[in-house]
C-alpha cells in the first residue's frame, strides 16, 4: 500500500470554478445574495418589525410630550401646563418662567410665589432649604426624598391614590374650593412629629395618605403636591384640579415657574466615583491585580531572545480536508461543500477520459455517459444541477459522485482475466 498523501501547510486552494485549469462550464452553485436573503427572510422581517416598533414608540413619546418639557409653561401638549399659565395671566398674575436656580432664588426673595418641579432631580437639599427659607409661598410638585427631607421632615411618599379623591380633610382655602381631585394623584403620609410641627394633609385616601400636604417652613408657607396631574393640560379640567392649581399658584401677584435643568446641578457637591462605589470594590480590584501578576509570573513564558528555526512542517491532506469540512458544516454551507467535491470529480473524470482541460461540463457528461452507459441528463444533474436540501442529501450526492468516478475507472481499466474487470 502506498504511504498516505501529504500536503504542505501552504497548499494551494482548490481550483475555483472560473480557474482556466478547470473544465469550462463547471459553474459552482454557491447561493447568491438573493437566495441568501430569501432563506433568512424571517429574521429580516423580525428585525424590521422591531425597528418599526422602536420608531413608533419614539414618535408616540415625542407627540405626547409635544416637544416641550413636562409642565412646561409654554408647552401646549397634554403633559404641559400652558393652559394653567394662560388662565393665571388672564387673572392678572405675572407668571415668569425661570430656568436657573439663581433667578428662582431672587424671585423668592422678592416675594413671588415659586413653583418648583424638579423632573431631573438635580436640586440638592441645601438649595431646597434656601428656597424654603426665602420664599413666602413655595409649591413643590412631585417632590423627591431630597426635597422632603430638606423642607418637610416627617412627610413621606406613600404611593398613588386608588381613584378620585373627595375627602378634603383640611381647611386650606384652595382645597376647599376644589372639593375633589381626579384619579392619578400621588400620596404623602404625615407622621406624628410632622403633624406636631403643623403639617396637615388634604384629600385623604385610604390609610391616612393625602394628595396635598401643607405646612409652615422656616420662611413661609410650603405646599407639597406629589403628582403633576392637577397642573397638566390634559387633566386640569377634571374634577377640582383647576381650582386647586389656580388656588395654589395664584395666591400672589407674581409667580416664578421654575423647572430646574442640568445646569442647576451643584457640581462641587456631586458625589465622586469613590463615594458611590461600595467599600469592598477597591480591595477586590487590588487583589485581582495581584493575582493577575502572580498568574503571569507562574504560568507565563520565560523571556529571552527569539530563535528563528526553519522546521519542515507537513500537514496530512486528510487533516486539511477535515478542517475545511468542519468549517463548511459549522456554517451549514452544504452547496459550497458539494461544489468543491464536484470540481474535484470533474477534473478527475476529465483526466481519466483523456479529455482536454477546457472541456465543458455538457461534453464531459456525454463522455461519462457513453463510457458507463448512464443517462447523460442524470450525469449532468449529478455533476452540476442537483442541490442538497439537507445533510443526508449532501452525503447521498457525495457518495454518488464517488460511485460515478469508480464506475468510470472500472470501465476504463484493462481486463485482469477472462470476462472480468477489476
Describe this structure in words.
The chain contains 16 helices and 11 strands. The strands form 2 sheets. Strands 2, 3, 4, 5, 6, 7, 8, 9 and 10 form a 9-stranded mixed sheet that branches. The chain has helices at residues 33-39, 41-65, 82-90, 101-109, 125-134, 145-151, 173-178, 192-196, 241-249, 273-276, 281-299, 317-330, 334-352, 361-372, 376-385, 391-412, and strands at 6-8, 94-98, 113-116, 137-141, 155-160, 186-190, 200-205, 209-216, 221-225, 254-258, 314-316. Among the domains are: 82-264, no CATH class; 317-412, no CATH class. The two termini are 17 Å apart. The chain has 422 residues and is of the alpha/beta class.
How would you summarize this macromolecular structure in one to three sentences?
With 422 residues, the chain is of the alpha/beta class. It is built from 16 helices and eleven strands.
**Main sheet makeup:** 9 strands, mixed
Q: Low-confidence runs (pLDDT<50, min 5 residues)? A: 1-26, 416-420
Quaternary form: single chain
Number of strands: 11
Jot down its keywords:
single chain; 422 residues; alpha/beta; nine-stranded mixed β-sheet; two-stranded antiparallel sheet; 16 helices; 44% helix; elongated; disordered N terminus; disordered C terminus
Fold blueprint:
Elements: E1 6-8, H1 33-39, H2 41-65, H3 82-90, E2 94-98, H4 101-109, E3 113-116, H5 125-134, E4 137-141, H6 145-151, E5 155-160, H7 173-178, E6 186-190, H8 192-196, E7 200-205, E8 209-216, E9 221-225, H9 241-249, E10 254-258, H10 273-276, H11 281-299, E11 314-316, H12 317-330, H13 334-352, H14 361-372, H15 376-385, H16 391-412
Parallel strand pairs: 2-10, 3-4, 3-10, 4-9
Antiparallel strand pairs: 1-11, 5-6, 6-8, 7-8, 8-9
Helix pairs in contact: 4-5, 5-6, 13-16, 14-15
